[in-house]
């Protein structure tokens, strides 16, 4: 298999880790929160924080690096509508994800200090408000990857 296809394989696997881990950890964290069981939330939040360091963080860098490499091979210009949209959406997702990681660590520390649901309700609302547009943007990124809309216009 060519280097190009190996890099594309890594790019798609990284996209799978980014989207899959994001959806998975969001689901378990939301379910733990809705269960009103602080002990369940405590254990879940500890694991969500670990998952973001182990899976999401490396994938964020691998996605961008392999994406730039693939662009070069496909002669997609940096001033193309496609790249400007992709990089703007990717940055937006990043600007949503960084406060989400901070919120998850805050909630983990609150719970470790014996906090209860009402103490982090506002943080969870912010977590949800940041998560929804971020996931919507990743779906748009998948569309742009497949359609290559504006890549050669
Ligand atoms: C969350 C962000 C991203 C996701 C989910 C994602 C996902 C994908 C997927 C599924 C493909 C395969 C499309 C196909 O086979 O037609 C792809 C291809 C590609 N991606 Fe991404 N990608 C993301 C970010 C990026 C970024 C930031 C760049 C550029 C810096 C990029 C550049 C590319 C290029 C150039 C291709 C075309 C490869 C080809 O068609 O052979 N991607 N991406």
Compose a concise summary of this entry.
This protein has 153 residues and is mainly α.
Give a written overview of the molecule.
The model has no long low-confidence stretch (mean pLDDT 96). Helix 2 (38-73) runs antiparallel to helix 3 and helix 3 packs antiparallel against helix 4. The protein is 83% helix and 0% strand. It is built from 4 helices and no strands. It has helices spanning 3-34, 38-73, 81-112, 121-147. It binds protoporphyrin IX containing FE (HEM). Protoporphyrin IX containing FE (HEM) binds next to helix 1, helix 2, helix 3 and helix 4.
Highlighted features:
single chain; 153 residues; mainly alpha; 4 helices; elongated; binds protoporphyrin IX containing FE
> Which structural class best describes the helix and strand composition?
mainly alpha
Total strand segments: 0
Low-confidence stretches: none
- What percent of residues adopt helix (DSSP H or I)? over 70%
Radius of gyration: 18 Å
Largest sheet: none
Number of helices: 4
Secondary-structure element order, as H and E?
HHHH
* Mean residue pLDDT: 96
Assembly status: single chain
The end-to-end distance, rounded to whole angstroms, is: 30 Å
- How many domain modules? 1
Coarse shape: elongated
**Ligand kinds:** protoporphyrin IX containing FE
β-strand percent reads: under 5%
Please give the structural blueprint.
Layout: H1 3-34, H2 38-73, H3 81-112, H4 121-147
Bound molecules: protoporphyrin IX containing FE.
């Amino acid at each position: 298999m060519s280097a190009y296809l190996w890099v594309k394989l890594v790019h798609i696997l990284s996209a799978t880790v980014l989207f899959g881990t994001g959806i998975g950890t969001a689901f378990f964290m939301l379910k733990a929160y809705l269960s009103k069981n602080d002990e369940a939330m405590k254990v879940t939040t500890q694991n969500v924080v670990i998952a973001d360091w182990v899976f999401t963080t490396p994938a964020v860098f691998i996605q961008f690096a392999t994406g730039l490499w693939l662009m070069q091979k496909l002669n997609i210009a940096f001033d193309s509508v496609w790249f400007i949209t992709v990089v703007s959406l990717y940055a937006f997702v990043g600007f949503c994800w960084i406060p989400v990681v901070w919120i998850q660590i805050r909630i983990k520390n609150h719970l470790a200090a014996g906090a209860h649901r009402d103490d982090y309700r506002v943080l969870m609302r912010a977590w949800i408000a940041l998560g929804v547009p971020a996931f919507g943007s990743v779906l748009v990124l998948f569309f742009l990857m497949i359609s290559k809309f504006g890549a050669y216009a």
